[in-house]
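Bug report

Summary: structure tokens for Thioesterase differ between web form and batch submission.
Environment: batch mode, default settings.
Steps: 1) Submit the sequence below via batch. 2) Compare with the web form result.

Sequence submitted:
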Amino acid sequence: MGEGEQQVSAVRDGKGPLGPDSSHDESFRVPVTVRGYETDTQGHLNQSVYLQYAEHARWSLLSAAGIEQAEMVAGGVGPVVLEQTVSYRRELRAGDEVTVSCCFEWDVPGSGKLFRLYQAIRTADGALAADITSLGGVMDLARRRLVPDPGATLRGLATDPAPLGLA
């Protein structure tokens, strides 16, 4: 691999919740190394890059489930983020090794079309650097509307629904 490239690997060991009172599974994790050009004038990771790391981990999870972007587009659907909240907990600096986890919650009360996604960015020693909560759905690309039961839609596209929590 060239400089700055990062090999993606999913680690499934069930380690840790997002925070002290959370029971969210962090068994799907993607390693990332903080790169110098991602830092700001304070010398720490720029706030927008946390969302890029989260996006990278989400697509890695879909890929681990056997769902590729081209297949989704060919199937006329695509994931959408409707809302995101980031809580920054610890500074990250160039060279820091982190993991980004993903955990779906499919039963969002009263929606039928939405899911929640919980993500944690942790340092090599396991400290929580940031947690990200997203509200999302799966969009019908022709109708430009959310599909009912996004879990069923993604399960239908997956060759391995386990990373999605849909096994």
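Above is the batch result. After comparison, the two runs are identical; trailing whitespace caused the diff. The CA atoms of residues 149 and 164 lie 14 Å apart. The chain has one domain: 28-158.
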